[in-house]
Amino acid sequence: xLTATNGxxxxxxxxxxxxxxxxLDWMMPGFSGVExxxxxxxxxxxxxxxxxxxxxxxxxxxxxAAYEAGVDEFLIKPFRPGELQERVAALxxxx
Length: 95
Known about the structure:
It is a single chain. The protein is an alpha/beta fold. It has one domain (about 5-95): Response regulator (Rossmann fold, 3-Layer(aba) Sandwich). It has helices at about 5-15, 35-40, 60-70, 80-95; strands spanning about 20-25, 50-55, 75. The protein has a three-stranded parallel beta sheet with strand order 1-2-3, with helices on both faces. The mean pLDDT is about 95.
């Protein structure tokens, strides 16, 4: 498991390490989770990384912006502990 404390580091790690899955918070210092996801989607080596967005933002426009940036799944805070595990497992099971 890799950890970044801001969006800039998250993007660099995702490009360098190419994880199968990236869990991003929308509100991060540096780049937002949406900005990180959008940057990944145009980067040839990292565009296949699955992205799960965690956020307290729940407006329809927020969901639309996240999906337009290339987010695979969107999980609204607060969520039950098992729900994150279920979403991660489902994303990793996708071919």
